[in-house]
Design goal:
Layout: E1 6-10, H1 25-34, E2 37-40, H2 43-60, H3 62-71, H4 76-82, H5 85-102, H6 108-112, E3 116-118, E4 131-134, H7 136-147, H8 155-171, H9 182-191, H10 193-207, H11 219-244, H12 247-257, H13 268-279, H14 283-286, H15 294-311, H16 316-326
Helix pairs in contact: 1-9, 2-5, 12-15
Length: 327
């Protein structure tokens, strides 16, 4: 069994005016679409989770709770609230009200799925074999620190950062990626599980050809060149292959021209029904009363084989993700 592809997201801390996770949403979407497991290390989610854990611990440990009530200057109403189980419910309710304001509600499904984990003090660990996904502000900081020789990054870590930086850039080019919800990204990932494996292989190969790291001036030029030389033509080729896969049209023409070759009844209705299901062609369009025989069966097989061949293309994941996001 192959190792999980793990990504760690490390955005720059927000300013007091940006007390939400809006800046890192696209980083998160990229990571959960491309990675097997994702760890988010971001100050606002960390504080939110830490406060939630603090509430749980406070009401779980009577001794700690009593010490705080006895030693911290609080009015009688606050002391009364903290000393009851209703106080816990009210505090958690207040925290729930804050959740949509800072954007934490957008992460719920990804966290429940087990793909996304939010770093929590005392609980989370950063895996050694992880790929760091950094935002622009962090990359600029890395650039300055390296220039001043205050920061040393190993060649292996540089390669990992380069690969994920490449992925982030090309996924932003997908139609409507910015507007897609995290829930939609999770659906796409589940649908395109196998093509994703081939896509990763292609990305590793292409990132080897990128000469620079994300904090270098030539990084985005190399990506641009790679995109127009190798990615866009591959996606166009897949699109053309999909459009030329006309075996179902061929079948319909045969039904119209030579209906006597297609026997009715028997297993025909089942195959026609399946054909309609996988091709989005209605059973009415084909003809409810028409069965199918050798001609239909062969045409369907040809279409399915051609589809399998197209899906084996390493860029099929990228192409199909774009097609789904267009809808």
């Amino acid at each position: 069994m192959s190792k999980e592809f793990h990504i760690t997201i490390m955005p720059y801390p927000p300013t007091p005016k940006e007390l939400n996770i809006n800046k890192e949403i696209n980083l998160i979407k990229t990571a959960i679409l491309y990675g097997d497991k994702v760890l988010l290390i971001s100050i606002i989610p960390i504080l939110f989770n830490s406060f939630l854990n603090l509430i749980e611990q406070f009401y779980r440990d009577e001794e700690i709770k009593q010490k705080i009530i006895d030693n911290v200057e609080l009015d009688e109403l606050s002391k009364s609230l903290l000393s009851t189980i209703e106080g816990k419910a009210e505090l958690k309710s207040k925290l729930e009200e804050v959740k949509p304001k800072i954007g934490m509600n957008k992460l719920e499904l990804a966290i429940k799925s087990g793909i996304l984990d939010v770093y929590t003090f005392g609980k989370s660990k950063i895996p050694e074999e992880t790929y760091p996904l950094l935002d622009e502000d962090i990359l600029n900081l890395v650039k300055v620190e390296r220039k001043d020789e205050k920061l040393n990054i190993s060649d292996v870590d540089s390669e990992k950062i380069k690969q994920i930086g490449f992925v982030f850039d090309i996924l932003q080019r997908l139609p409507n990626f910015e507007n897609a919800t995290i829930d939609e990204i999770l659906d796409i990932r589940e649908t395109l599980d196998k093509p994703l494996i081939r896509f990763r292989s292609a990305i590793i190969g292409m990132s080897d050809c990128i000469r620079y790291t994300p904090w270098d001036k030539g990084f985005y030029y190399d990506i641009e060149k790679m995109f127009y030389q190798r990615i866009e033509p591959a996606v166009l080729e897949i699109e053309e292959e999909c459009n030329s896969n006309k075996y179902l049209t061929k079948l319909l023409n045969m039904i119209v021209k030579r209906p006597w070759e297609i026997p009715a009844g028997g297993i025909g209705g089942v195959i026609i029904s399946k054909l309609a299901e996988i091709s989005n062609i209605s059973a009415t369009a084909i003809g409810l009363s028409i069965g199918t025989g050798t001609v239909a069966f062969n045409a369907l097989n040809e279409w399915k084989e051609k589809t399998k061949e197209i899906e084996k293309n390493q860029m099929f994941f990228y192409y199909k993700t774009g097609e789904i996001l267009k809808k």
